[in-house]
Amino acid sequence: MPEDTRAARGMRDLLPEDVRRRDYVIGIVKDVYGLYGFEPLETPALENIGTLMGKYGEEGNRLIFKVLRRGEHEASGEADLALRYDLTVPLARVVAEHRGRLPRFFKRYQIQPVWRADRPARGRYREFYQCDVDTIGSRSLVVEAELCAAVTDVLRRLGFSSFVMRLNHRGLLGGILESAGIAGPLHDQALIALDKLDKIGREGVERELHARGVPAEAAGRLLGGFTSRQAAGGRAGNQDTLAWARAAVGQNEAGRAAADDLAEIVRLCAATEAGRHVVVDPSLARGLSYYTGAIMEIAVDDLPGSLGGGGRYDGLVGMFLGEDIPACGFSLGLERILVVMTERGMFPPGAQAAAADVMATLFEGEPIDDVLRLAAALRAAGTRVDVYPEADRLGKQLKYAAARGVRLVLIAGADERAKEEVTIRDMETGEQTSVPRATVVERVAASLLRPRLPGVKQS
User: Which end of the chain has fewer surrounding CB within 10 Å, N or C?
Assistant: First the structure.
């Protein structure tokens, strides 16, 4: 019986068209982040399990893919390694390990796959890429503003225009929780539940708060405040929202300081394109426990969930180094971006280009080395050339070229060789032109410069 050839659940095979689209998005991300002075970094797929455990909160710990010990230790059932859960904790380890070799303000981007033992869903996989951008070493709110601006520029370059950069602060949330009567030891539990407000609604969060030990009266006060604020809808501007937040934290000093920080971030973002997209949202929680300051998340119209998020995590590097090192970052969800862009037809034709510009035909009894020399000359000039690998009828070769979206086909059979010519067939128009072999490279280059016709298959 044949073996099951499907990829493991939550994993995917990426066919050429998928890879080209991914490369297009990654190319824009790298380009924009480079404009902001961020440098590339890569870390191993596997980390020591102690590096990851205890950094993501209770739910995160359950989703880590653990790797059993190998060889003679396999029978123990113990795990000593784990697949990377995100790119932030590995970054913190790198900073602690290589601090002496890094600049005072280390600005890095990292685009690599991560793995989570999560339940697969639309746009949610167990293996997926993250596009992270982080700044290590500064507590200045300029860092938050620059991150918001960089992420905004990426999304706008990709073709997104209607999106919101939700902005909040863990200190503000702490002040609101305190004012609602939720004790400090329950804050992490309350934030895990609150983070689901836009997914399961007030009643669902209320049930989860109760299950996590939050008194019903305190939960009611907390959610009542958020519900009344949400009732105002999108009509409330950032200044009105901040005024509500200051009232909600009362005399809580940390909460009021956090509101001031948010006001400053909003002011700084106004000097960039991010200013058109940043919206203060006191209900934004983000579940990861390592956040210590401002937190951000991208929301897109008609799309459940987010396209990415991040925030300040000044204590995470200190878990490895023994001293707090300020840090702030943002992670874009590449898979969700690809799903949305594909469904909405947002990719330009160039992002779905054919694998080759030109295909060289091959016929029975014709010298193969002659075809290969022609292909080599074109490749040396920067043209992508596919050589049909088997001698076959011209009709079948042309059908293959059309299916692959190849722009030009070169025909060099016995008649063409006798005249020292090559026939160039334009697969869009069907026109054929015979040219001297010595001018093929120049004539192909000129033909490829012409814009493609609308509606022609690109991949």
Answer: N
- Count other Cβ atoms within 10 Å, centred on residue 183: 13
| Cβ(11)–Cβ(337) below 8 Å | no
Mind giving me the DSSP string for 259-311? HHHHHHHHHHHTTSGGGGTEEE-TT---S-TT--SEEEEEEETT-SS-SEEEE
**In the sheet that 79-83 helps form, which strands lie side by side, from edge to edge?**
46-48, 79-83, 66-68
The mean pLDDT of 207-224, rounded to a whole number, is 82
Cα–Cα distance between 30 and 304 in angstroms, integer?
26
CA 298/CA 162 separation, integer angstroms? 11
| 8 A C-beta contact, residue 245 and residue 176 | yes
456 band by pLDDT with thresholds 50, 70 and 90? very low
pLDDT-derived band at 228 (thresholds 50, 70, 90) equals: low
Assess contact for 337 and 25: CB atoms under 8 A.
yes
The structure tokens listed for 299 are 């929301």
Smallest Cα–Cα separation from 200: which of 209, 188, 213?
A: 209
Q: Note whether 313 and 290 are within 8 A (CB).
A: yes
Residue with tokens 């700044």: 135
Judging by DSSP bridges, how do beta strands 163-169 and 278-280 pair with one another?
parallel
Secondary structure element (H or E) that encloses residue 398, with its range: helix 394-403
State how far the Cα of 278 lies from the Cα of 241, in Å rounded to an integer. Answer: 12
> Is-contact 137 105, C-beta < 8 A?
yes
Helix, strand, coil % in the chain, rounded to nearest 5 = 45, 20, 35
pTM, entire model: 0.84
Give helix 216-231 / helix 170-180 axis angle, nearest 10°.
120
C-alpha to C-alpha distance for 314 and 323, rounded to whole angstroms = 10
Residue 352 CA, chain-centre distance (Å), reads 19
For the chain, the residue count is 459
Q: Is 269 exposed, middle or buried (0-12, 13-18, 19+ CB in 10 A)?
A: buried
Distance CA(140)–CA(156), nearest Å, equals 25
Spatial contact of 316 and 291, defined as CB atoms under 8 Å apart: no
Q: What is the pLDDT of residues 356-411, one digit of tens each?
A: 999 999 998 888 999 999 999 999 999 999 999 999 999 999 999 999 989 999 99
Tell me the two tokens of residue 411.
Answer: 């025909």
User: Which two tokens mark 139?
Assistant: 């507590």
Burial of 214 from C-beta contacts in 10 A (0-12 / 13-18 / 19+):
buried
The β-bridge partners of 274 are none
CA 318 from chain center: how many Å? 26
